[in-house]
Amino acid sequence: MGKILAVVRREFVERVRRKWFWVMALLGPVFFGAIIFLPSLMMRGGGLKDIVVVDGTTKGLGERVTAALDRAVTPDSHRVFHAVRVPAGDRVIDSLTAEVEAKRLEGFLILTDALVDSGRADYQASNVSSFTAIETIERNLTQIVFATRLEREGVNPTLVTRARLPVALGTQKIAGGRATKESAAQSFSLAYFMAIILYTAILIYGINVMSSVLEEKTTRIVEVLVSSLRPFQLMLGKLIGVGAVSIFQFLIWAVSARYLISTRGHLGGGGRGGGDAGQVFQIPHVTLATTAVFVAYFLGGFFLYSAMFAAVGAISSNEQEARQAQQPVSVLLMVSFFAMFAMINDPNSPLAVTLSLIPFSAPIAMPVRWAAGNLPVSEVALSLAILLAAIVAVTWVAARIYRVGILMTGKRPNIKELVRWVRAA
What is the pTM of this model? Predict the structure, then answer.
């Protein structure tokens, strides 16, 4: 046991001391902060834009459009345009084009009397890829043209607007026999981000184990190590050591995420901004049970895949061979990741249930189903039991391959040779 702890301590200290560990530890909060704050910042559209409405209408439509655009705001109450109206005339377009080219004007909107019937207007600007600006112009034009058409037919636009008031559907997830405060957007966000974090972390740390094994093998350090401890002890120490590093990094991310969420409202990320992205992605409420499920399946997935990656590193003689040999292992994990949206859409579908019981896909599939649906504890327990049995079996096979392959060099073994290694070891 002391030898295993020595390997664990060495693996932990060596990785924590590396510069890249702290770079990744800092990139996690940066990524999380971008998710929280970027939607609202992007909705602000980069400041007030000066535009001109070229009014070629005869019934006051241009004045209404100009006034509407001048007071238009984003969902977080930031003005979009400073709009000015000019009558249509000779050389007006040429003059405004020169102003846009000289960067003194953002763009100009051309209106004619045909707008009400054809529903078409032209906007010329230096930047026509700003979704906020284009959406604001289209929304205001649609509202004004719609009201004008109703007035022309003798219908009161106010009554129609009231009749067309949209319905806001409130959603609440039922769990534990009662309705929770978790909305559909929060449930989706929780499942989505859990899948991404689990997939990325298991893959990255598994490849780290493979690279560590390959480095020690190619530098012949392993020959010194196995002279004082058994190969299984070396492999187990590597798995536990790298797992401890990953948990330490997750703790850093969790503390940072908690701080960012608590300061979100003070820094302007908790307003009404965000548009469609804000409706789909919302900060979820993470319960203690969800945390336990996440940690359990992360550890299960890590030990399962790291054992396989360790075996891949043991049978490879160089980095290129290892990259090729790891592809079948990575594909096993990718299957459940690519099926994520199907599982979020229907957590109780035959596909979702099957993937959550297969040990190679369960580390992602079951947490996604847990976040998106309402699962009985017995189903989670069954999945964990199968995953634990698979970890024992895969670790046993990987350890036997590791024991032989760690000292082998030259051509990478084929399937028959691997089977012989398992039997011989």
Answer: 0.64
Nearest to 43 by CA among 65, 83, 82, 72: 72
Separation CA 277–CA 90 (nearest Å): 43
Q: Half-sphere exposure of 247 toward its Cβ, with a 13 Å CA cutoff? A: 17
CA dihedral sign of residues 78, 84, 88, 90: negative
Burial of 263 (0-12, 13-18, 19+ CB in 10 A): middle
The alpha carbon torsion through 198, 202, 203, 204 (nearest 10 deg) reads 100
Ordered domains of the chain (ranges, CATH): 2-41+182-423 (no CATH), 46-163 (3.40.190.10)
Q: What is the pLDDT of residue 400?
A: 80
235 residue type, one letter: M
User: Can you tell me the distance from the alpha carbon of 187 to that of 194, in angstroms, rounded to the nearest whole number?
Assistant: 11
Distances in Å between the Cα of 399 and the Cα atoms of 218, 221, 319, 403, 414 are 19, 18, 21, 6, 17
* Rounded mean pLDDT, 121-149: 88
Spell out the residues 6+ positions from residue 341 whose beta carbon is closer than 8 angstroms to its own. none
CA 190 to chain CA centroid, Å, is: 10
Tell me whether residue 102 is exposed, middle or buried, using C-beta atoms within 10 angstroms of its C-beta: 0 to 12, 13 to 18, 19 or more.
Answer: exposed
Contact 122, 109 (CB under 8 A): yes
List residues bridging with 54 in a β-sheet.
86, 110
Most distant CA atoms of the chain, gap in Å: 95
DSSP assignment of 301-358: HHHHHHHHHHHHHHH-SSHHHHHHHTHHHHHHHHHHHHTHHHHHH-TTSHHHHHHHHS
Instruction: List, for residues 179-209, the tens digit of each pLDDT value.
Output: 556 555 666 777 777 888 888 888 888 888 8
Q: For residue range 354-413, what is the model confidence (pLDDT) as tens digits?
A: 999 999 999 999 988 888 877 888 899 999 999 999 998 888 888 888 777 776 766 667
255: CB partners within 8 A, 6+ apart: none
Measured in degrees and rounded to the nearest 5, phi and psi for residue 220 equal 65, 10
- Residue 50 has φ and ψ, to the nearest 5°, of -85, 120
